[in-house]
Amino acid sequence: MNIIGVDIGGTKIAAGRVNDRVELLESHTIPTRAAEGFAISIEQVWRAIDPLLSSDIDAIGICAPGPLDPRTGVIFNPPNLPGWCDIALAKLAEEKFGKPVRLENDCNAAGLAEAKFGAARGFANVFYAAIGTGIGSGIILDGKIYHGKNAAAGEAGHMTIDYCGPVICKCGIPGCIEGIASGRALGDNLDQIATRLSAWLGGVVSILDPDIIVIGGGVSQIAAPLFDRLKAEVPKWTINPFAAETPIVPARFDSGILGAASLWL
Ligand SMILES: [Zn+2]
Fold first, then answer.
1. Residue-range domain boundaries for the chain
2. Ligand 1 center to residue 170 CA distance, Å?
3. How many angstroms does the Cα of residue 60 sit away from the middle of ligand 1?
4. pLDDT means over runs of 10, the chain (265 residues)
């Protein structure tokens, strides 16, 4: 099976061809041109896919920032894709390219790729977090993405851990972990950030008791000591007596292309 994986971000679109051994055969990146509106940025998506098409391509997987509905393939109105309001992206792409298309939230897709082929391979229940300029997450239960009733689950970056604090998250809620421990909080030292992430992940362990926690995004590459801190401190923030045995590991993949492709592989 040969898949085109497409990762639509607010600033760039990455697309590549992936085979069923999960090898990235070729890839490229082009600007999203999001600020120029829907008509321009959807053309950029088509331009990203077009040169990768060939007769041996079986399907296309696309991941994008939420909110979106993977069951209907509709993107609602993501803050970093202005003008993308109720866009039936999967249907539009199927009509344009004549291949079956699946659409998924980018962090859900990244979590699925880690569970199937990456750092969480062999684990059924995975909590995945991408910590970069924001904090996104995905929940994999029994090897499948947990979507929730409205396909809106897995937004753990917007759990507040400091609701009396001074920082208002861009979502409007005071003290979301995204607002106080992502790249936006870089003015704070890593010590404070590690404590906040530990409190947050302790809550995650209390509610999910996952087999493994995988952390991707910019932080996973620049802050190796962070993982030692999290392993030591997360157990202090949960009543789960087995928390110290829960592995907390860096993600294997740094490309959303494999996440998008994993929707089919
Ligand atoms: Zn928030």
1. 3-106+256-261, 109-250
2. 6
3. 31
4. 95 96 95 96 98 96 93 91 95 98 96 97 97 92 96 94 92 93 72 92 98 88 82 97 96 92 96
The model carries a pTM of 0.94
CATH (residue range 109-250): 3.30.420.40
- Distance of CA 91 from the midpoint of ligand 1 (Å): 30
Using the mean position of ligand 1's atoms as its centre, give its distance from the Cα of residue 160 in Å.
7
CA of 138 to the centre of ligand 1 (A): 15
* Token output for 149: 């009733």
- CA distances (Å), origin 50, targets 20, 195, 206, 259: 20, 45, 45, 19
| Fold topology of 3-106+256-261 | Nucleotidyltransferase; domain 5 (3.30.420)
Distance 265 CA to ligand 1 centre (A): 32
Residue 80 is predicted with a pLDDT of 84
Say how many Å lie between the CA of residue 214 and the centre of ligand 1: 21
Q: How far is the CA of 169 from the centre of ligand 1 (A)?
A: 5
In this predicted structure, what is the pLDDT of residue 190? 87
Q: In Å, how far are 22, 25, 49, 91, 245 from 3, measured between CA atoms?
A: 9, 10, 11, 17, 36
Domains 3-106+256-261 and 109-250 share a fold: yes
Q: Tell how far the Cα of 171 is from the centroid of ligand 1, in angstroms.
A: 4
pLDDT in the model for residue 71: 96
